[in-house]
Design a protein that fits this description.
Elements (H helix, E strand, L loop, with lengths): L1 H11 L6 H11 L2 H5 L14 H11 L4 H11 L3 E2 L8 H4 L8 E5 L8 E5 L6 H16 L3 E4 L5 H11 L4 E4 L13 H10 L1 E4 L11 H12 L2 E4 L7 H11 L3 E4 L10 H8 L3 E2 L3 H8 L21 H6 L5 E2 H8 L3 H13 L3 E4 L3 E4 L2
Parallel strand pairs: 3-4, 3-7, 4-5, 5-6, 7-8, 8-9
Antiparallel strand pairs: 1-2, 2-6, 10-12, 11-12
């Protein structure tokens, strides 16, 4: 696994190769080291890699030495995870576009606590701020870790309330973990590093860029077991987070507000589209108590399963895949894949769906 992380880093340097295609590349060949050593034409079997990207891969691979690149990168960025690392957050493994590199600063040992995302407008009303503080404090006292984005308004209120209640909070940034944006959150950022975790898919030194913030919203959504939108206008980054959370299979909750308050219209739209209504602390806790259990741990941590099952298990994701896709990704004979899937189902590690499709988890 230590060797494989060098190849996650190296592949991430190739322009035009985004997280979705990189995930497909890994799933198809089972190892990014294996994929690195293959001739460029072989990579075209992966969806999303056409002639232009294949040529770019071939050009950049000649210039990169993955082990050497990792050594240099660690000098500037000593704290980061790749999907090859056992400490990489398991909820991120479930999504189709996990960040290939996840930088952190703070207390990574806290990463096993149940998580709830809290997002909303940068300009909340007194009502929105008050309910953010009430709900966040209640959730913190119940042992939840609060995930948000260190922005002004609802994000900051959620982080502050969690810290004041003695809890742990994660801030997902659109900058490097050594940068603070907005600058007024210097003290808050340091408190989070002391009592929680700062996370980013961007290396140290990355300055604020408006294109980075919608991207980081997917990480907030993915890291959260449920997402609360506590006040948001119709055009709000919080609604992007809610949409992504829904796509990732997370529960979305919205705080109702007045039709006369433009800051609440986004929440009301979410409720109309099926988001769960927040009616108070007790009702929210009761609803969150019904969250499904986390999926089984990643393959690196499963020690009681026959190693012969691992190649099939590693290509399974929370997204359903056809039997043919699994055979293609593993390169194994159909009868062996079928037998392995049956055994994984018996262990509760895989589920068969209609249409001969399979996904990770029982």
């Amino acid at each position: 696994m230590l060797e494989e992380r060098a190849y996650w880093l190296a592949w991430a340097q190739i322009p035009g190769l985004g997280p979705v295609t990189l995930r497909r590349l890994h799933n198809h060949f089972g190892s990014l080291k294996t994929a690195w050593e293959l001739p460029a034409p072989s990579l075209k079997a992966v969806e999303g890699i056409g002639p232009q990207l294949s040529a770019a891969i071939q050009e950049h691979r000649r210039k990169l030495d993955p082990p050497g690149l990792l050594r240099e990168h660690l000098e500037r960025n000593p704290q980061f995870w790749t999907p090859a690392d056992p400490d990489y957050p398991p909820l991120l493994r479930e999504i189709p576009d996990p960040p290939p590199l996840l930088y952190y600063r703070g207390q990574p040992a806290l990463s096993s606590a149940p998580t709830v995302g809290v997002v909303g407008t940068r300009d909340p009303s007194d009502y929105g701020r008050r309910w953010t503080e009430r709900l966040t404090t209640t959730l913190t006292h119940q042992g939840f870790t609060i995930v948000s984005g260190l922005a002004l308004g609802i994000d900051a209120a959620a982080h502050h309330s969690c810290l004041a209640a003695g809890g742990h909070t994660w801030a997902v940034l659109g900058t490097g973990v050594d940068q603070v944006y907005p600058a007024s959150h210097q003290q808050l950022s340091q408190r989070i590093a002391n009592q929680g975790l700062l996370l980013s898919e961007y290396p140290r030194g990355t300055k604020p860029d408006k294109a980075n913030f919608p991207q980081r919203n997917r990480i907030i959504a993915a890291l959260s077991r449920a997402v609360l939108v506590l006040e948001a206008p119709s055009k709000s980054g919080a609604l992007i987070t809610a949409r992504l959370a829904n796509e990732y299979g997370r529960d979305v909750y919205a705080l109702p507000g007045s039709l006369d308050n433009p800051r609440s219209l986004g929440c009301l739209e979410l409720i109309a589209q099926g988001a769960q209504l927040i009616l108070g602390e007790d009702q929210l806790l009761e609803a969150l108590g019904g969250l499904p259990a986390l999926d089984p741990p990643p393959p690196e941590t499963i020690t009681n399963v026959d190693p012969q099952l691992q190649p099939v298990w590693q290509v399974l994701t929370i997204e359903p895949q056809s039997f043919d896709q699994i055979c293609q990704a593993t390169g194994l004979p159909a009868d062996q894949v079928s037998s392995t899937l049956i055994q994984l189902e018996l262990f509760g590690l895989a589920t068969q769906l209609p249409g001969l499709q399979y996904r990770r988890g029982g």
